[in-house]
Every structure is written in structure tokens, then in C-alpha cells.
Amino acid sequence: MKYHLAVDVGGTWLRAAVFPLGETTPARRERIRTPRAGRPEAALVALLRELWPTDGEVLGIGVASPGPLDPSRGVILATPNIPAWRDFPLAAYLQDAFGVPVAVDNDANLAALGEWRYGAAQGHHDVLYLTVSTGIGAGVIVNDRLLHGAHGLAGELGHIPILPDGPLCGCGQRGHLEAVASGTAIARAAREALAAEEVSSLASLAAPPTAADVARAAHAGDALARRILAEAAGHLGRALAGFLHIFNPSIVILGGGVVQAGEVFLSPMEAALRAAVMHPAYLDGLTLTTAALGDDAGLLGALALAREFEKDGSVCDE
Fold it and tell me: Is 312 within a domain?
């Protein structure tokens, strides 16, 4: 029996699964809390050793990790939830530990790859994937190839400047798309509105409102919550129009927790997109949809990455 291992490094969980050759249903999967200190790579090795199959060989390991990172070298340049991984050669570390080929790529890139190989983007050749959650990540596939750029850093669409003097982004710059349209941005806008004594059912909450709270209030008809979601959605829709102009995809896939708010977010987003696009030709035949793989998009993208390896590290034909 032959297997591939896939890893998804999240801010809260380290998840891993072992997949029999040619299958997308794991034989086994496990997760542990993402270590914030110490040696998180040792915890990852222990997790993989627990999953390691005893009835066959592992052909390769694929890892989805937050960036920025260099996929060509398998080096994590920095990641906010794991401070110890700075210029850390994760692929080489795991390859030394297990003696099999290891590939590492950005988690949003691999979510795009997962949706392209196994999810909503099957059959498409030019794909734009956006995850709108705590932050905003993206992956782009152009002519059946994942876009990496010169140093593997392409696709950071959440860090497109939107408002030059806007709110501070998690990256340290101001006014990025992530700072005005993410779940974090929505929650911040709600807190600021309540601090200004605007009327809302959110004022009755025992704790500061989250983006999920804002979405629930919007569904219940709360005017402030609807306005906050519409503003964030408008920023995202206008940014999407720009992305259509740059990449001209045949499908746009939206994932992440904010998208789960449904039409109270998606309708104003699509309206802003249609109003901002420079020519209707960019919308011809465009599929605008939500992610099919949910939380498993990154894990299945890591599986697709791992399947590029055979035992000797060459490209797999399957």
C-alpha cells in the first residue's frame, strides 16, 4: 500500500491526515493545538509519527502553512501564529526526520489548489480563490498553473491597498483589503460604532461583538449590522473587480467564515463588483461561487502537492 501525508498548519490547530494512493478520503486524521512557543516543529513530527502507516510506504508529504514563505526552498519566512518559525527550513527538517520528499506552500495557495483538483473549480483553467476570515488570503491559478511569482510570494491579494489612510492591517500597513473587509475589520467597525453610541442590538451583548455576531444581527434586521457588512462587502466587491481585470478568471471561489454570512454579505459584494468592472466581458461566463471543500480545502491542497512526488521525488503520473 502506498500513501501520501498532508498537513494544514492553522493558527489554532495543526491538522494532518494520511491518504491512500489515489484517494481523497483519509485513512486517518488527527489534530493538535498549534504550539505558540517551544519547538512547534517537534510537535508536528510527533503528530506525523502517530499517523505514519505501518502497512506500506509514504511517497511524500505536503504542507500548507501561513506565509510569507518560499515554496521553492520549503522555508517559512515568518508566520504570525508561530513566532519560532522565522526563516525556518520546514521542508528540509521534515525530510530529514522521515526520509521522504516534502513540499511546503502557502495555505491559501493550497486551498485554491484543493478546490481546483477536488472541489468547485474542477474543469477550470483560470481560478481565483479568496478566503475571507480573520484575514484575507488568496490563491490564483493561471492556465492550469498555481501563481507563485519570482520568490513564491505572489497572490497576497488581501494586502492590496484600498484606503491609503485606512485602518491598520495585521501586516503593519494601513488600509489594505484585509483591514477593511475581513472578519477582524467587521468586528472592529462594530466596536467603533458602539463606542460612538450608535443604536444596535449588538449593544446588548456581554462581550465585544465578533463578525459572526454582526452577521447574526444583520440576519435579524439590525440596521447597523447590515450597514457594516455592506461596507465591508463593497470594499471586497470593488477589489474583486480589480482582480478580474488582472487575472480574468473563469471562476471566483469565496471561502472563509465571513462568506458564511450569506446574502447579507454576498449580495452587496456582487453589486459592488458589477458596478466597478470596466467591461461586461469580464463577467461573461464567470462563475462566482462559494468553496466546496470547507475547512478541508487546505488539507486537500496539501494532498495535491504531496501527490507530485513518487518515492524518488519525481513527478507522479497519477
Answer: no
Q: Which pLDDT score is estimated for 157?
A: 97
Q: In what order do the strands lie in the sheet with 145-146?
A: 145-146, 136-142, 127-132, 251-255, 287-290
**187 within 8 A of 210, measured Cβ to Cβ:** yes
Q: Taking a C-beta distance cutoff of 8 angstroms, is the pair 26, 19 a contact?
A: yes
pLDDT tens figures, 207-220: 999 999 999 999 99
Indicate if 189 and 68 belong to the same structural domain. no
pTM comes to: 0.91
Q: CB 167: neighbour CB atoms within 10 A?
A: 17
Is the same domain home to 127 and 271?
Answer: yes
Comparing CA positions, the residue from 58, 41, 54 lying closest to residue 94 is 41
Cα distance between residue 35 and residue 38, in whole Å: 7
Q: Which residues contact 173 (CB under 8 A, 6 or more apart)?
A: 159, 161
